[in-house]
Every structure is written in structure tokens, then in C-alpha cells.
Amino acid sequence: MKKILAMTGMTTILLFGCSSAEVDQLTDENDALKAEVETLKEAQTDALKKFEAEKDALQNELDQLKEALETDGTEDEPIDTEERVVQVETIEQYPMTLYKSDQLEFDERGQGRIVELYVNAEEDEDGNLLFDDGQNWLLVVKDGEKTYPLYNDYLQLGEIDFHIAPIKGEPSIIMIKTAHENTNIFVYRYDESKEGFVEMPLYEENDI
User: What is the enclosing helix (H) or strand (E) of 33?
Assistant: First the structure.
């Protein structure tokens, strides 16, 4: 009981030892800290909402593209150009970084062709790619030991991307090439009779 009374008295002394101005200052600092925390929370919430909205918009555009490619009318008016067939070719040197990969199809053994995208760009300590004004890109299909280089070139102020989608029931590779203000989309499908991937230019737009 004596200890409790002693502690109570000490607390009273400490409280009365602080001036009114000091108490007000501490209260103001505490309120300011609370306001700063709330501001940070709101900023974080807004950033997450913006990220989700941008992600949903990008996914929606991709879904629309895939849906359009699966319709019968998509390829009725291909760009007028000579047909290009990509056949087996040995790749002497790969760019330093594997940027993206996906499975194209499976056979009866559960094995399949793999599509890989490489870029000649280094990674920083956090795993982010350090792009220059231009770099070499390689989009390749691997079928066991066979390699089919769909794209293997230097690209200035641009990038390569790809998606896999069924077009008229056939597994297909959709390559998107952007450079400067130009966008080209190509579709690749394997043709047994030609022993390679047939390139079909699908879309071209300049000055986007």
C-alpha cells in the first residue's frame, strides 16, 4: 500500500512538473504525427487503387485482343506481304537475360514447345532491368533441342512482348513489337508441311 501511494505521488509530481506550454507542445506534436500517418495511409490507398485500375484496364485490352483473334473475321484481311516461315536454326549467342517464358502446347507425352523472350539488358540488385536506348531481343520457340528464332534483332527505342492464345482452335504466338511510335503485331503458328512457324502480320499502326 505504501508503494502504491509512493508511485501515485511521484506521478503527480511528474505531471505537475511539466508546464502547460510543454503539455500543449506534446499534444500538438502528437496530433501532427497522427495527421501525417493518416495522410500516408490515404496516399497508399490511392496508389493501390490506381495500380488496380491500370492493371484491370491492361487485362481488359488483352482479353479484347485475344477475343478478336479467336473470331473468324480477324484474319480475313491480312496485311499484304510475302509469307515468312521460321525454321529450325541454331542460336549462337543468347541475350543475357530471360525476360519472359510460357508454354505453347503439350504433346501426348506431356512435353511441349516453350516460348522464351530474351533481352540484352542487365539487372540491378533488386532484379529490375536496366534498359538502354536500344538492345537486342530474341523471341525463340524451343522444341527439345530444336530452336526457332521468331525475332532476333536489335531494337532502338522499343520492346518486344508476346502472348499465347488459341486462334481458330490452333495454339498461336502473338508477338507485339513497339518501336518509336510504331506498333506491329504478328501471329505465328506451326505448319507441319513447312516444318516451321508461319509468320502472319496482323496489325500495323504508325504515329500512335
Answer: helix 20-69
